Amino acid sequence: MRIGELSAATGASVRSLRYYEEQRLLTSTRSPSGQRHYTDAQAERVRFIQRLYAAGLSSRTVKELLPCVDAPSEEASDAAMERMEQERERISAHIEDLITTRDALDVLMATNRAHRRTLRRPSESGRDGNEASLRS
Predict the structure, then answer these.
(1) Counting runs of H as helices and runs of E as strands, what totals does the chain give?
(2) Do the Cβ atoms of 80 and 57 come closer than 8 Å?
(3) What region does 24 belong to: left with phi over 0, alpha with psi -120 to 50, or beta?
(4) Distance CA 10, CA 44 (A)
(5) pLDDT over 70 (residue 116)
(6) DSSP 8-class letter at 2
(7) Could you give the 3-state DSSP secondary structure of residue 107?
C-alpha cells in the first residue's frame, strides 16, 4: 500500500508517517518512481507506535522499545520493561506537578471570586442609592 493508503488505514497523517520513517521507527520500500510502499505488518506497526505515543512516550523512547517487538527476547523484554517503568515514574511525577499547579490555580480562582464579591457590593448599594434619589 502507498503512504496515503497507510494513512487512511491507520489514522496517522502522511506527515506523521514520514516523521516515523525519519526517526527510523518505520521503513518502506520504494518503487522505481520513488513512491513509498508499505505492508499490512507495517500498518500494524504504525498502530503500535500510535499507542505508545498516546501513552505519552517520546519518539526516542518508542525507538528504545521497538527492539522488543522487532527481535523479542528476554533481554529485550527486560530492557523494555525497565524503560516503561522509568516512563511511568516520569509521568507520575508530571501528574503530581500538574495536581500542585491545579491546586494553586484553585486558590487563585477562590481569591478572585472573593474579590469579585467585594466589587459587586458597592455597586449594588450604589444602585439602591440612585433609586432612592430618583424617588425623591
Answers:
(1) 5, 2
(2) no
(3) left
(4) 8
(5) yes
(6) B
(7) helix
- The phi and psi torsions of 84 (rounded to 5 degrees) equal -65, -35
Q: Considering only CA atoms, which of 52, 67, 64, 69 is closest in space to residue 16?
A: 52
Query: Residue 48's pLDDT is what?
Result: 95
Residue labelled with grid coordinates 523512547: 61
Distance CA 83, CA 58 (A): 12
Three cell numbers, residue 106: 484553585
| Interatomic CA distance for residues 45 and 39, integer angstroms | 10
Q: What is the pLDDT of residue 56?
A: 87
Mean pLDDT value across residues 53-68:
90
pLDDT tens track for 81-94:
999 999 999 999 99
Burial degree of 29 (CB within 10 A; 0-12, 13-18, 19+): exposed
pTM of this structure? 0.67
Q: Which three cell numbers stand for residue 125?
A: 448599594
Element (H, E) at 37: strand 36-37
